[in-house]
Amino acid sequence: MTFLFRLTLLTAPLATLIASASLHAEPLFVTPCSDTAVPGSLCSGLNVPGSYDAQGRAIGDADAMHVFVRKIAADVAAGKPAKGTLWLVAGGPGESGASFYSLLPTLRRSFPGFEFLIPDHRGTGHSSRLCKVEESEQSPGGRALAGAEWASCFAGINLMPEYAGQFSITMAARDLKALIENERGGKKPPVYVYGVSYGTQLVLRTLQLGPLVVKGVILDSLVPPQTDARWDLSQRSQVVNAVGMQVLARCDADAACHAALGEGAESLYRRVLDKAQADSTLLAKIPGKNLKHFMGGMLDVPAARARIPYLLQDLDQGKDGELTAVRATLTQAAASLGSYPQSPLSIPLVNIISNSENNLQPSLRPNWAAIDLDREEADLLFTSPLPRILLGGGLPTYPRDAYFGGLPAKVPPMLALQGTLDPKTPYAGAQAQVQALTQNKAGKVALATVQNAPHFLLWTAPACFEQASSRFIAGKAAQDCTL
């Protein structure tokens, strides 16, 4: 997923496990964490090959990497075993597992008596990074790049273009498979896997590598089919705009909202855009000085999204009250996810994976340029900065492997949770992915629809998430919900 979750933790002692033909030598979790991110948690991890071959074996003498994992014990009475285990796979690409730490209350309600295992996939958090010096916790920017670190990090990667391939989705999927199998051992309590956004893609890629001995998989904000050009990342502004236009139409259909505006929401917005283009002082009030991007970002947070019509009215009238309130809402929403040193998004990893596998534009439109993007987005009212960021490139890509665009031959029972107003992984795209898995006869796959919900339902629609997850682990049929 593409949220900039600002989460952190201190470096913890890590168990040393040798990545060889067998990764089942000893338990992962032996060391209490030295930080206070999640009091009482254990920190460990697994040393993995820098690169794997098609059979999952280490290639040559490439430097080993480390995958960091945090374990949060089950909330059960002393001496009682956990009822189950849930692996939590973060989104991005580029996000660390720290995006889940502040959501522990919802997770405990949704999975009572479960222990939680939270990895940082390679390239993120406390796992091995693309830029070992610039993305180290001791660097001037900490885990984030800052100042001159941008240039030196990108220059270093470009000197070793083949290095990008060591951070592919498939390499990360092999890590995840090794982690789950290593910790699974001979455990009897059920094991589940949860992934969100890009994490759903990573989980599906992991299942392509072979079966996982898990009881079920939950996919939150499911990515669309990888080869469908309608929803690749170059089309993100169209996806965002489609959701934004639904929000405006809902205001027109609501008597109170329409009466408050006294006109159609779309016509009001277009007038505000014209004013912003003519009045630099108005545009200067908008974060990023881009009203379309700002409005697009508001769609991620339900409380902010609900204020869009009234913000437009205020801006039209030259008032600042709604803008101040919306900015406070967005700040509060970001703060609710916590702030830890481990959490800054890895921009190099976002760039490499996105352009290598999730951006079809270079092959479909090889001469695509910024002027073409300007022309395409001119009439949109809600946009995303992502297509323009990807257009810039700046880092090497890796070749797509045999797993690109494919589906697992077999999956455990699977539940997809999807919001109808998701501006990042569109509802229609999730439906298409579920349909493809069903037609492939890979296994039992159910879709639970959350009406009016945006992206990342664990965070944005916790009550619906709890309902859906509880029913799933109880073996009950999927049930739709409304935010």
Radius of gyration: 22 Å
CATH level 1 class label of the largest domain: Alpha Beta
Q: How is the quaternary structure best described? A: single chain
Strand order of the largest sheet: 1-2-4-3-5-6-7-8-9
Strand segment tally: 9
Instruction: Tell me about the largest β-sheet.
Output: 9 strands, mixed
CATH fold naming of the largest domain: Rossmann fold
What structural class should be given to the helix and strand makeup?
Answer: alpha/beta
Whole-number mean pLDDT: 90
CATH A-level architecture of the largest domain? 3-Layer(aba) Sandwich
Query: What portion of the residues fall into strands of 2 or more residues?
Result: 5-15%
H/E element sequence: EEEHEHHEHEHHHHHHHHHHHHEHEHHE
- Globally, the shape reads globular
Number of helices: 19
Number of domains: 2
Binned, the helix content reads: 25-40%
| CATH superfamily annotation of the largest domain | Alpha/Beta hydrolase fold, catalytic domain
Cα-to-Cα separation, first versus last residue:
20 Å
Q: Could you give the topology of this structure?
A:
Layout: E1 42-48, E2 65-72, E3 84-89, H1 104-110, E4 114-120, H2 149-159, H3 169-184, E5 191-196, H4 198-208, E6 216-220, H5 236-253, H6 255-261, H7 265-278, H8 280-284, H9 291-298, H10 302-305, H11 308-316, H12 321-335, H13 347-357, H14 361-364, H15 370-377, H16 386-392, E7 414-419, H17 427-439, E8 445-451, H18 457-460, H19 462-473, E9 481-482
Parallel strand pairs: 3-4, 3-5, 5-6, 6-7, 7-8, 8-9
Antiparallel strand pairs: 1-2, 2-4
Helix pairs in contact: 1-19, 3-4, 7-11, 11-12
